[in-house]
Amino acid sequence: MQHLPKDMSNNLIGDFFTLRLPVTIPPANQLRVALFGTSADPPHNGHRSIVATLGHQFDHVAVWASDNPWKENQSPIEMRMDMLELAIADLNTPGTIKLHRELSHPYTAVTLERARRIWPHAEFTFVIGADLVKQLPSWYRSEDVMRWAKILVFPRPGYGLNKTELDHLRSLGANVAIATPLSQHHISSSTLRQGCLEQPDEIPAVVQAYIHQHNLYPCPENTPTIP
User: Fold this and answer.
1) Three-state secondary structure readout of 176-202
2) How does pLDDT run across 169-197, given as a tens digit for each residue?
3) Nearest to 103, CA basis, from 47, 62, 141, 71
4) Burial class of residue 212 in the structure, from the number of CB atoms within 10 Å of its CB (0-12 exposed, 13-18 middle, 19+ buried)
5) pTM surpassing 0.85?
6) How far apart are CA 130 and CA 40, in angstroms?
């Protein structure tokens, strides 16, 4: 992914694995909220896995589709929101999982401002991929992002966790945790699109049906199988 200029923010999270998150004991009665934004173009089973895992570790998991200012020809964001909502609808976890369309914004600091208004007394954990660790200090109002939320870093295929970059985040005041994968999904939304959805089994059936209905990602010779 192209490095963001200092005056730009990119709250695209990307595609992740199923991970085992660290368990912490929060202050009494303090709501623990995980914030998970992704391009969801399209959402796939990797997204479902990480959301389900978060749902077992946090009281509330707020999910949304986000725009990436560095990507062209993205599907309409409302359609990506719809697909993401379908993808997570049947997840059953101790924590509440909910799509929050109102949190979507190109600037992560603005997303956090909105979250703080919704849950004024919550403890926030913002989820990023390993590919964004180096970029985070250059985000718009990154000091607010690191002050208002803990940072949970998810490994990704092809992106190593650089100790120097992690130490730099911590030196700026970030509370950074690394999640340990339980299993890996070697897929990404971009790969699925570029491959004409050649791995339809990685896309939930309800999302496949939505894609077919709206003729998204057309590839006549390799249309996803609809049950």
Assistant:
1) EEECEEEECCCCCHHHHHHCCCCCHHH
2) 999 999 999 986 555 656 666 655 555 55
3) 62
4) middle
5) no
6) 17
